[in-house]
Write a structure and sequence with these properties.
Length: 242
Amino acid sequence: MVGGGILGKAVESALERRGHDVIVLSKGTGFDVTEPKTMTPRSGIDAVVEATDVFTQKFDVARDFFTTSTRNIDHWAQESGIDKHVLVSIVNCEIDAMSSNGYYAGKAAQERVAVEENRKTVLVRSTLWYEFARKNLDRMKIGPLAIVPQMRVRPVALDAVAEVVAECVDGERQEQAYNVCGPKVMSLWDMTRVLRNKGALPLSIPAPGPSGRAMRQGALLPGPDAETVGPGFEEWFTAGKR
């Protein structure tokens, strides 16, 4: 497992529930995907899950981080004798309507590099996680306020996405790409307004530019090929008492 954020933790838990021994490699453990000299090859590993992330809206920053991460991880995996590489990505990151959003365009570039480097790479693309509502509040605080970009999404529970990743690692899923989503179309505002202890006053604001307009118009909604996984938002929210 490469990546120590909430995605990495969710995938780690899903794999451990299946009886796997999981090694978490991240910058915090001295494994920096942007510095190959820190990426010492390891033996005895069957699969690598790439769950790295960077917080930016700048295309050059996102592109450079994600493509460097994927290239370095794939090279490290080859040196370590690891055949299976699972990359977690985003539904619709590659469509033209989102090309002006630096983060999404960076993820699209990462997908292209991942497939070029290793045609056996499995892509698990998910829609927005339920957990993102809280994460967005923390990231988008401006004094006493927090910006909530207007968007139509079909969000999904992160644990359900992690289970799909674990199924790919175990070989239960044999396709090269999966698009997964939750059961209901919502807005980010719908998910935000019910949170407890917000820590700031949320404001629903249109995101700027063509990609912002596209998000409001449903560009992030999955196509008919997407697989519905996990609980609905209300069930998830109530269970966690968030």
